[in-house]
Each structure stands twice: as C-alpha cells, then as structure tokens.
Amino acid sequence: MGDEKVKVDPSAPSVPEYTVGDFNSTTKLAESQIISDAEYNPFEHRQTEKPNSTAGSLIHLLKSSLGTGILAMPVAFKNAGLLFGAIGTIVIGLICTHCVHILVRTSHMICQRTRIPVLGFAETAERVFQYGPAKLRPLAGFSKAFVDYALMATYFSAGCVYIVFIATSFHDVINHETGNDWSVRIYILLTMIPILLIGQIRELKYLVPFSALANLFIVVTFGITLYYIFKDSLEFDDKPMFASFGTLPLFFSTVIFAMEGIGVVMPVENSMAKPQHFLGCPGVLNTAMGTVIVLYAVIGFFGYVRFGDESKGSVTLNLPLEDTLAVVAQILIALAILFTFGLQFYVPMDILWRKIHDKIPKNKQMISQIALRSGIMILMGGVGLAVPELEPFIGLVGAVFFSSLGLFVPCVVETVFLWPNELGKFRWVLIKNVIFGAFSIFALVAGAYVSIKDIIELYTDDDDHTE
Fold first, then answer.
1. CA nearest 406: which of 255, 211, 278?
2. Cα angle 18-20-23, degrees, rounded to a multiple of 5
3. Which of 37, 249, 257, 446 is the most buried (most CB within 10 A)?
C-alpha cells in the first residue's frame, strides 16, 4: 500500500503524482478559482495504480488502529474506574470516529469545489482556508505547515514511546532471568543500537518483512495476554466504578493515544478503488472503528479487572515472568514494536526530507540523510532516557499531539469550510465543533499538566523507579 501512486485524470487540472505513503500528502496543486459545480465527482477522476479493495482498505485501517495502544487500555481504566472507563472509551471512540468522518467528508467537498481529484490531510486544511472566509485566507499556508509539523511531532514522539516500551520489556525479562539490577536507561541505550540500523531503511518495500513479523508477533502476544486475563476467575467487587477526577485527564489522553490513527486515514481513503465506500453505513470507517472501540473496551475492562491497581503502561508488563509463556509474550511484543519502528519513523522523516532535500546538493544527500536520521533517533533516545516511565509518557504524547491533530484540527477544518451559511439550523455544526474542540483543548491542557506533574513527582520523590 505504501508505495502505490494515485494519478489524476487528464481532464482534471494538472496534478503531479500523489504517493499514498506520504502521510503529509505533499501534492503540488494547481491554482484555480472556486468552481461551484455539483456535477464534478472527484472519485471519477482518480486513476489509481493497484488500488486497494474495500476489504483491503478495512484491513489497513484496522492495522493502523489496532496497535500497541490497546495494551495500555487497562492502565487507562485504572485512571477512570470500571463503569466510567467503559462509557468513556465508547464516547471517546465515537468522537474520534466522528472527527475522522468530518475530515474525510470535508476533503471530498473541497475536492469537488476545486475540481481536484485527491487531497491529503495537510492539503485539505490548506485548501479549506484558501477558499474560506476572506479574513482567514492568509492562514492557508500556516494551516498546511501546522498539519505537516504536527504529524512529524506526533510520530516522532510516538517513536520515543516505542523506544521506552522496548527497553522496559527487555529490562523486566532480562533482569528477572539473570538476576541483574540494571537500570532501564541501560536498556534504552542498548535498544538504540538496532533502532539506529532499522531507522536507516528508506524504502517501504524493505520494511514489509519487518511489518509482517511484527503483525505475527502482536497476534501471538494478544492471544497469550487474553489467556492470562481469563485463565482464572475475575474479581469485580474490589474495583471502583469511578476512580477520581484527578486521574481522568490521564484516562482521556491515554485512550486518545491508543485509538487515534488520523495520520493514515487520508492515504487509505485516497488509495481505494471505491472511495465512496469509506464513509456511510456500514462503510470502512464505521466498521473499523466499531471493531476498535469494542476490542479496546474489552481489553481495558477485563485487563483492569485482572490486574487492578497494578496495571502498567502495557498489560504485557503485568504478566507473571515466572511463566515461560509470559516471558515469550514480553519478548515477542518488544520485537514487534522494534520491527514496527521503521515504519513509524518513515512517516515523519518522509515529510521532513521532502521539505529540505531541495536545499541539499545531490552529491551530499546520501550522507545528509544518514546524519539527519541518526541525529533525530539519538535525540529520541535522549528523550526516552530523560523520561523512561511509560504511563505518564503515553499520557503526555496522547494529550499534546493526538488530541490536537485528531480532534481539534478536523473540527476547525469543517467549521471554516462551512462558514458562515452552511452550519445547519441554529448553527448546530458550529456548536458541536466548539464542544469537541473544547474537549480536545481540555484533554491537551489537563492531560499534559497531569502527565508532567506525575513525571516530576516520579523523579523528585523516588530515584529508584527506573531500577
């Protein structure tokens, strides 16, 4: 899917090739005036080499959403309680689904208005402002840049979480098996060796074997985890229905981190043979997100019931290391995340390189790529060394990056596109987007505050937490 090309119809305005693997969708678009032509159907003007089927697109979307975030759901429920956690997970899942829906629908409408067959996330934001209210048009370039840089920040920060996760898993297993008392920071340094090698892979086709192995390892790990969750009778009575107001921001930000996959939505939709099947009922989006919401709620609910207040940033870290099967699960999930790092790192590096490669002489581009990639990965490892605690780190990343990119931006894009006369009766669309936007800002501010507060307390109250 990553290196397929989408080409435009000769009858449409000239548009260079669009690479589905480019999460920033850096397509150069033809300048044109607004064309109010309801007859224009952008789907009919798309020419996609090797397009994805509806079923294949569903699998891609499920794959992007069903990642390691699901393993953090028990600790999310620990911060919310059983009842509130279950209801909150469903509500947040519906909000995330709606925000994806309005982003894709707005992209379709701006494509129709401008007679452009295909637009990505960043270009959708740019075009909406460019053809929006006159006072907002100067913000078109800023909106595109904001989405591009937010995507980079999101995936780079998620990569930091990956590094900490891998190191923590190996830390627990190796220290338990060997009797060592090494700090998790030592394992972060050791993890950086394979990370620096995998992160130098610049072609998606060479990442396919790693992704295939990662998928296999994740499936096996899920199976083992479910076995430990349900192997003995579950005790519900000692688990609160509601935890506390003070921990709710961590719940929201953790669930948003786990569930958001906004960066892959437009590439998946743009590569479909029948993009009209993406939205609607049941549709690819509703089917995928419905499955995700159910699975996340089940793992979070029963994982918390099994492990209670001992729930960790990944449920695999709660498995009994005395059992060989649990050790296998820990190693497999660590390897799965290690093998997934290349794809995770490919996304922001592709955006960044497209922005700067023209400024670098061709004879120095190879060494520049190696140096740039190495430098960024070392910086990511440095962030992991500074904050080698998984739970608040996940909350911080979810609060700052995923809430703004996955919730706030789609609400702004839809509002600007429909302003001022298409916001519905009593301007209900504006009211709805203000509410969702306010929720995303709350998740950002409160989640970041609580996460940073927890990180500070961890490092001021107890120097032994990384041992």
1. 255
2. 100
3. 257
Q: How many contiguous H segments (helices) and E segments (strands) does the chain have? A: 16, 3
Q: In terms of Cα–Cα distance, which of 436, 431, 445 is closest to 411?
A: 436
pTM: 0.78
Tokens (6 digits) for 397: 């990343």
Give the whole-number percent of the chain exceeding pLDDT 70. Answer: 85
Return all residues near 115 (Cβ < 8 A) that are at least 6 apart: 12, 13, 32, 35, 37, 40, 42
pLDDT digits 0-9 by tens, 209-232: 887 788 788 889 889 999 999 988
Alpha carbon distance 247, 127 (integer Å): 39
pLDDT of 241: 92
pLDDT over threshold 70, residue 35? no
Instruction: Give me 76's structure tokens.
Output: 């999310």
Instruction: Give the count of beta carbons closer than 10 Å to the beta carbon of residue 154.
Output: 25
Q: Would you tell me how many other CB atoms lie within 10 Å of the CB of residue 213?
A: 16
The pLDDT value given to residue 66 = 66
Choice between 28 and 134, residue whose per-residue pLDDT is larger: 134
Which pair of tokens denotes residue 449?
């505050």
What pLDDT is stored for residue 50 in this prediction? 67
What's the pLDDT score for residue 416? 94
- Say which amino acid occupies 125: A
Work out whether the CA dihedral 71, 340, 388, 154 comes out positive or negative. Answer: negative
Residues in the chain: 467
- DSSP element (H, E) containing 134: none
Burial readout 304-342 (b: 16 or more C-beta within 10 A, e: otherwise):
bbbbbeebbbbbbbbbeeeeeebbbbbbbbbbbbbbbbb
Taking only the tens place, the pLDDT of each residue in 148-174 is 888 888 888 888 888 998 999 999 999
CA atoms of 73 and 91, how far apart (whole Å): 15
**Can you say whether residue 27 is alpha, beta or left, with left for phi > 0 and alpha for psi between -120 and 50 degrees?**
beta
d(CA 399, CA 448): 6
